[in-house]
Design goal:
115 residues; eight-stranded mixed β-sheet; 43% strand
Length: 115
């Protein structure tokens, strides 16, 4: 199983966070969909974090996003092991296939791959 990146999903105001993460921390805006903004390092594009006001299509806001090579295989393992699927496997209009699973600590994990 290959993991491509792990991104913390902070809960808050994406637009209100931009000046802090760009001007103070030195990250660059990589994506802004209004409800989520993702910032990354200019020298290491996998060093990222997102700020989300809410999730556009899911019932909860995830705590972490993990991009994997085979999201269907990870989903099957999560189901096999009896973990709670919080949001079903979904092909989203912004080009990702994802699902949410609750980890043993109660955190909601957004497991995804780009289409």
């Amino acid at each position: 199983m290959t993991v491509h990146r792990v991104v913390p999903d902070l809960h808050g105001d994406p637009a209100g966070s931009r000046a802090f993460y760009e001007d103070v921390i030195g990250l660059e805006l990589a994506m802004d969909m209004g409800w989520i903004a993702t910032f990354h390092s200019q020298t290491n594009r996998t060093a990222q974090l997102s700020v989300m006001s809410s999730d556009a299509t899911a019932p909860v806001t995830p705590d972490v996003s993990i991009e994997v090579e085979d999201v269907d295989a990870v989903h099957a393992k999560a189901v096999e092991h009896g973990y709670e699927i919080v949001h079903p496997l979904t092909d989203e209009p912004w080009g990702v296939r994802r699902f949410f699973v609750r980890d043993p600590n109660g955190a909601v994990i957004n497991v995804l791959r780009h289409l």
